[in-house]
Amino acid sequence: AIPYLGTILVQWVWGGFAVDNATLTRFFTFHFLLPFIVAAATMVHLLFLHQTGSNNPIGLNSDSDKIPFHPYFSWKDIMGFLVMMMMLIMLSLINPYLLGDPDNFIPANPLVTPVHIQP
C-alpha cells in the first residue's frame, strides 16, 4: 500500500518473508505491553492535567474555586454504580432469559442439519 516501502516494511514487521514464529512472538509481546504503555501515558496525562487544571489558560493555581472530589463526587459515583449493579442483579435474578436468544431453547438434534447449511 505504501510505494517503495510497503514490502520492506511488511518484511520488517513480519520478521521474514511470511508470517512465522517471529511474527507471532512480536505481536504477542506488543499485545501484552500495549495496555501498560497506555496506562502509563494516561497517568502522565492526568498528572500534567491536574497540576494546573484543564481549563486554565494562564496556568495559575486557583484552588479557591474548586470543590474536593471526595466525598462529594465519590459518593455520587458509588451510588450510581450501586444502582446499576442492583438493576443488573434484579434483571438476572427475576428474568434471566429475557435477553437470551430464543433459538437457545430449541433442543439439539445431531441427526438433522439446519436448512441453511448445505453440503
Separate helix tally: 3
Q: Biggest sheet, in brief? A: none
Low-confidence stretches: none
What would you call the shape? flat
**N-to-C CA distance:** 37 Å
* Secondary-structure-derived class: mainly alpha
- In sequence order, what are the helices and strands, one letter per element? HHH
Strand content: under 5%
Number of domains: 2
User: What percentage of residues falls in helices of 4 or more residues?
Assistant: 40-55%
Mean pLDDT: 88
Computed CA radius of gyration, to the nearest angstrom = 27 Å
Number of DSSP strand runs: 0
Give a quick precis of the structure.
By secondary structure, the chain is an all-alpha fold. 54% of the residues lie in helices and 0% in strands.
Q: What do you see in this structure?
A:
The structure is a single chain. The chain is 54% helix and 0% strand. The chain is mainly α. The chain folds into 2 domains: 57 residues, no CATH class; 38 residues. The two termini are 37 Å apart. This is Cytochrome b. One of its GO terms (cellular component) is mitochondrial inner membrane. It is found in: Mitochondrion inner membrane. One of its GO terms (molecular function) is metal ion binding.
How is this fold's topology laid out?
Blueprint: H1 6-14, H2 21-52, H3 72-94
Keywords: Electron transport, Heme, Iron, Membrane, Metal-binding, Mitochondrion, Mitochondrion inner membrane, Respiratory chain, Transmembrane, Transmembrane helix, Transport, Ubiquinone
Domain Cytochrome b/b6 N-terminal region profile: 1-58
Membrane topology: Multi-pass membrane protein
